[in-house]
């Protein structure tokens, strides 16, 4: 591709007399045009060195430009691979029977779930908001297992989930589950079908750990969805999940025809 040198002297002023955008933003705009015109999800951008040569700028400027594209949700940095163009935002339907894997499969998207960690709690030691929910149904207390999973769409991380499950309802879950769709595993291994009964929305700024997993900048906004899930047949509380997702990846849609959200 022909070099596109950015002449700082001629870019100092816009036609209307306003100051021009910084050089790194101009580079980001040109790269965004590349992405929208002829690159497709999964394609890799050229290396920082090649981009610096193409635009006649230094690598630090290129790095700032790419960081802006990351924050805009257009690309993701893959360690050892480079900078990859990501899929467009996808709608995620929330209803009582909605499942992450099923939703994406119906839209022709591949998905994966990686188990990051497991941890045991009691109702008294689990994070306060979660403990109160379980204490209402299990006042005598008991054991909870936390399963932390990272969900991918088209090999791009989109959602970090903390699943808090009632251990007595799912004995051995920490060893029987090793990744993939958790609810499908519960159906197949425990013959329990979970149904969403309550949803709560909020937002937070990404911590360093969340930013690393979700390939976003620290302090980027994340959408939080807390779901309370009961056994469809017995109506007993089995799981409370708290998911952190990038709003530039997932757009939540509530189906009022099939669910009541409280």
UniProtKB/TrEMBL annotation:
CDD domains xref list: WHTH_GntR (cd07377)
Domain HTH gntR-type, chain residue ranges per copy: 21-88
Domain of life: Bacteria
Keyword Repeat tagged: no
Pfam families: GntR, UTRA
Alphabetical UniProt keywords: DNA-binding, Transcription, Transcription regulation
Keyword Transcription: yes
Recorded GO MF terms: DNA binding; DNA-binding transcription factor activity
Name of this protein: Phosphonate metabolism transcriptional regulator PhnF
Gene symbol of the encoding locus: phnF
